[in-house]
Design goal:
By secondary structure, the chain is α/β, with parallel strands linked by helices. The protein has 4 domains: 190-406, NAD(P)-binding Rossmann-like Domain (Rossmann fold, 3-Layer(aba) Sandwich); 408-683, NAD(P)-binding Rossmann-like Domain (Rossmann fold, 3-Layer(aba) Sandwich); 708-829, Hotdog Thioesterase (Thiol Ester Dehydrase, Chain A), CATH 3.10.129; 846-1003, Thiol Ester Dehydrase, Chain A, CATH 3.10.129. 28% of the residues lie in helices and 23% in strands. The protein has 22 helices and 34 strands. Strand 31 and strand 32 (962-970) form a beta hairpin. Helix 1 crosses helix 2. The longest helix has 25 residues, at 485-509. GO terms for molecular function: fatty acid synthase activity. This is SDR family NAD(P)-dependent oxidoreductase.
């Protein structure tokens, strides 16, 4: 998949590691690279060069005799910087010395130099360890893909596993684990506030602007000049810099010359791309000319002028129409996919050019030329604003931004039918193959696979099933006399992929389906058309071909950029054109989280993937009866690039959560039951990677208790949440003995959030009825506990909600029936109920011994602390009516890092009200009571922190098992904020004599 071919920086975030880093000092982390590995010394001393070669051989798959002393580690052996770090750490470990902090790998670029350096570092008596350190990339493992090879036009994730059975066919285990840290995210459009200005003008700025033919550049230039800026025009004629952006060689020459003669620009505005949009009716979809003008020329310019743009107070920007933000709205205009590719490119530029303001402003206007002045004003206002978000949109005088939200796939009718014929690009290996195995198992689809590798033209001697990698290496060396070891190694890598592809295809055929393989370069339209024409039937198309060649913009070669872009962009263009007259029902493609977030080192990859997504959105506009799905993956574990030990280590150091292969396959299969969503992003919630705030902030969640949405229908929703003491720190302040308890008030809050989320219209909770707690929720031994929240619409504004849990075995299998913990009905409305006031009772004097907090809060009485230490005074008590002062004054976090969450039902003060029922009993019967049932609770007005309220608690009845109370939370004048009627508390044991407080409190009891 696209995820398996990410750079060392990974699709979910981080800084790419490549040859760009060879001049940097060795990271401190290298000191612990081999932590825990045994270092054994022996008498005598091995030749240092021999030991270095042994380690390199173990880490790379070369044989020691291939490793000449003067070979360059990167140029001749293809060992990248990250792998060199790992090799050096292992060599140092074997000789028993620490990796120096100031080590510069560029000075040790050959085996000879490395061995000589090692020799200077080891004491005379030291010798290497007896046993070689186990190699994460040892020769007995399958070599990983050569990501820099142009031949990698095949699947984005060539298989590194043998052909085996589908991941899972258990009928009760078909769907992803809702508690997984990897989420299925969907993209939505949110209205946003207008940005504040960051600077007022363009004084001192010299901006290069490419011209369009429709007046937009002219209007932008006029405004820049009026605000004190200087403009250099770029275009075909009558411009300061003359260049045709569609002619990349000529454009490159022109920009090179410009960079030499005019090195002082402070920004580039790319508006020449607008012409293709205005003339889209007369142009081929994503033609080479438009692709060059829109995307490739932008890369050429950024690479050439990178140093000029990579500094403070610089700008890079473009404006687009209906193709970046608005494809995610129902009534968006016609999509121009190249705009999206340009936006993807600039999202990565935004991350690499850390000091540069990079903006893509998307407009949705039916007749943009009529609003040209307004568009120019808004575009420049965004460039000058203080908002660093890269992608924004404007429509109907409102500003919009994108956001992402966890949402499970619907469980509707399958998109794929039994016996379908599926045309797949790049399906013979990697993640695509792992998915195809399951699709074949479930739907018995027939496959037509297009891949660039002519696997069946391979020398039969190289395909013998029992050949080892050493055998293959020897055969290749004999066939490639005089070639450098790196060339032989790359040939071995390609051969392993070919052998694996053949094995995979044979496995698929063994499942009783038809598999047709065509050696096809997807960038060649005639080849694609010929392959498509040979298909009698096509029910679905799956474009999974792709490649990835990570490198930062200044060091990325144009050839590499074009290869990465063309496989995806031209591949999609050719597939759509070749199959234009075919009656297929659905089309899928693989994208990457980088298309949403951008990623250093992947300017081409993000551009290509963002193009792919909007290409399918465009197809959906033209063919609404077909189903189109874009799967944007994070890094997968156990397959593809994640099996490369170097990449795996970098991703793990970055904190990336890998998507387990089994879960990834389940995510894909689950989405085959959901035809409603066209783009799904599968990723952990990596807030650090999300510099544009698409995920929101964990400190400002609308419904902080709900967790992950695991089911959604028109009138019902289900969420799953793991209570964990590390995150849910409020639980530490509510423990019975050493067992944390989920509070009654937090149960009410959680169900209120479920009702509000299901309503989805900003309504507020006004009332709760028929609440009960059949079973409390305990975190025994402090272990995390998974709980399930549900809400169902009963009538307009009325929701039945509940909290349950299930018992799971250690391997995740559900046992028994769900246990009901909380349940209640919730009523929501746009307005609060009519205000109520009450006459406050006449206070009856009360006094007590000692400190009130010590009297009230005690592990044997009210076992609340910290956050829930809310009773601050006993104002009155007559034996039946207790009046207390309560306040939420804590500044401590409720959740980890969150001190003031967005709550619906005031759980801290509601719990304070509940506490007063327990306190009343301690003052009279010395019996512990716990919340059990509530007839009705009404919320008249929102409460505030750091505000004193009165809680009036009246005992109404005492039954055999429960006591019943009415509670009122008011201000000092009697305004009612919360009213609770029919509040039942279940009776537990009486306090031990030493814990009773009846003799410590004096009050005048009312005699009836």
């Amino acid at each position: 998949s696209d995820s398996s071919r990410t750079p060392a920086s990974d699709q979910a975030g981080g800084t790419a590691l490549s040859s760009h880093d060879t001049d940097s000092a060795m990271p401190t982390a290298a000191h612990t690279m081999d932590s825990g590995e045994r270092v054994v010394t022996r008498s005598g001393g091995d030749n240092t060069t021999t030991v270095v070669k042994e380690v390199i051989a173990a880490q790379t798959g070369y044989t020691p005799d291939m490793l000449a002393d003067d070979l360059d580690l990167e140029a001749d052996l293809g060992i990248d910087t990250v792998k060199q770090v790992e090799i050096f750490g292992k060599v140092a470990s074997r000789f028993g010395f620490a990796v120096p902090d100031d080590l510069r790998l560029r000075d040790l670029n050959t085996i000879e130099k490395l061995a000589a350096y090692i020799q200077t570092k080891i004491p005379a008596a030291s010798a290497p360890a007896e046993d070689p350190v186990p190699a994460t990339g040892s020769a007995d493992q399958v070599p990983t893909d050569d990501a820099d090879s142009p031949a990698a036009h095949g699947p984005d994730s060539p298989s590194l596993h043998g052909a085996n059975a589908p991941v899972s066919d258990a009928p009760d285990d078909r769907f992803p684990d809702p508690a997984s840290p990897i989420k299925r995210l969907v993209v939505r459009v949110d209205e946003a506030a207008m940005p504040k200005p960051g600077r007022s003008d363009f004084a001192g700025q010299r901006l290069l602007v490419s011209l369009d033919s429709h007046g937009f550049a002219e209007a932008v230039i006029e405004r820049i000049q009026s605000m004190g800026g200087e403009v250099i025009t770029l275009g075909i004629e009558n411009t300061d810099v003359t260049a045709d952006l569609s002619d990349l060689d000529g454009f490159q020459a022109a920009i090179n010359a410009f960079a030499q003669t005019d090195p002082d620009i402070t920004g580039y505005l790319h508006l020449a791309s607008l012409d293709a949009w205005f003339d889209r009716k007369n142009r081929e979809f994503a033609s080479d000319k438009d692709l060059n003008t829109t995307m490739k020329s932008m890369f050429v310019l950024l690479k050439t002028l990178y140093d000029q743009l990579d500094r403070p107070d610089t700008f890079v920007g473009t404006l687009t129409f209906d193709s970046v933000v608005f494809p995610y709205m129902e009534d968006g205009g016609e999509i121009h996919s190249l705009f999206a590719g340009l936006s993807g490119l600039l999202k990565t530029a935004n991350k690499e050019l850390e000091n540069t303001r990079v903006k893509v402003v998307d407009f949705s206007y039916k007749q943009p030329k009529k609003s040209l002045a307004r568009i120019a004003d808004l575009f420049l206002a965004e460039l000058l604003s203080d908002d660093p978000r890269c992608e924004v949109g404007y429509k109907n005088k409102k500003r919009y931004v994108l956001s992402m939200h966890p949402e499970p796939a619907r469980k509707d009718q399958p998109i794929v039918s039994d016996g379908d014929t599926l045309l797949v690009t790049g399906g013979a290996g990697g993640i695509t193959y792992e998915i195809l195995k399951q699709v074949v198992a479930d739907y018995q689809v027939n496959l037509v696979i297009l891949d660039i590798n002519d696997i069946y033209a391979t020398d039969p001697a190289l395909l013998k099933p029992d050949a080892t990698q050493a055998d293959l290496m020897g055969l290749l060396r004999s066939q490639m006399p005089g070639e450098k070891p790196v060339a032989v190694k790359q040939a071995l890598d390609r051969l392993v992929r070919v052998r694996q592809s053949i094995a995979n295809i044979e496995y698929l055929k063994s499942q009783g389906i038809s598999v047709t393989y065509h050696c096809t370069d997807v960038t060649d339209y005639e080849a694609v058309k010929a392959a498509v024409d040979q298909c009698d039937r096509i029910d679905g198309i799956f474009h999974a071909a792709g490649m990835e060649m990570s490198q930062f913009i200044p060091k990325k070669e144009r050839k590499a950029f074009e290869l990465v872009v063309d496989v995806k962009v031209k591949g999609m263009r050719n597939l759509l054109a070749a199959a234009r007259d075919r009656e297929y029902r659905y089309m899928f493609t693989f994208s990457s989280v980088t298309a949403r977030f951008g990623n250093q080192g992947q300017v081409d990859y993000t551009a290509a993937n963002d193009f792919l997504g909007k290409a399918l959105f465009r197809e959906k506009q033209m063919n609404p009866d077909r189903t189109y799905k874009v799967y944007a993956w994070t890094a997968w574990g156990g397959v593809g690039m994640a099996t490369n030990p170097t990449v795996k280590k970098v991703l793990e150091d970055r904190g990336i959560q890998f998507l387990p292969m089994e879960q990834g396959v389940k995510f894909f299969m689950a989405d085959l039951l959901d035809a409603t969503e066209s783009e799904m992003v599968f990723s952990g919630l990596d807030y650090d990677f999300d510099i544009d705030g698409l995920l929101g902030t964990p400190l400002d969640q609308a419904f902080p208790f709900l967790g992950d949405l695991t089911h959604k229908a028109d009138d019902t929703a289900v969420w799953t949440r793991v209570l964990d003491l590390e995150h849910d720190v409020f639980l530490h302040d509510h423990t019975m003995g050493d067992v944390p308890l989920f509070l009654g008030s937090t149960g009410i809050e959680t169900m209120a959030e479920a009702a509000a989320a299901l309503a989805g219209d900003g309504s507020v909770v006004t009332k709760m009825s028929d609440f009960s707690i059949p079973y409390g929720i305990k975190l025994l031994k402090g272990r995390p506990k998974e709980i399930i929240f549900s809400g169902t619409l009963q009538a307009p504004g009325e929701f039945a909600c509940g909290i349950t849990s299930v018992f799971k075995t250690p391997n995740g299998k559900v046992m028994g029936n769900p246990k009901q913990h909380y349940q209640g009905n919730f009523f929501l409305a746009k307005q609060r109920p009519a205000p109520e006031t009450m006459d406050l009772p006449e206070f009856s004097p009360v006094s007590w011994e000692g400190d009130l907090a010590d009297l009230v809060y005690h592990p044997s009485r009210l076992f609340m602390f910290g956050l829930f230490g809310t009773i601050t005074n006993i104002n009155s008590f007559d034996g039946k009516t207790l009046i207390t002062t309560v306040a939420d004054r804590s500044e401590a976090p409720f959740f980890k890092g969150v001190a003031d969450p967005n709550f619906q039902a005031a759980p801290v003060l509601v719990d304070a009200m509940f506490q007063t029922g327990g306190l009343l009993e301690f003052l009279t019967t010395s019996r512990t009571v716990l919340p059990f049932r509530i007839a009705a609770m009404t919320f008249f007005a929102p409460v505030e922190k750091h505000t004193d309220y009165l809680c009036i608690t009246r005992k109404k009845a005492s039954g055999e098992e429960t006591n019943t109370y009415d509670l009122f939370l008011t201000d000092m004048s009697g305004k009612v904020f919360i009213k609770v009627t029919g509040f039942e508390m279940v009776k537990l044991t009486r306090l031990a004599p030493e814990d009773r407080i009846t003799d410590k409190v004096t009050f005048a009891e009312t005699v009836v």
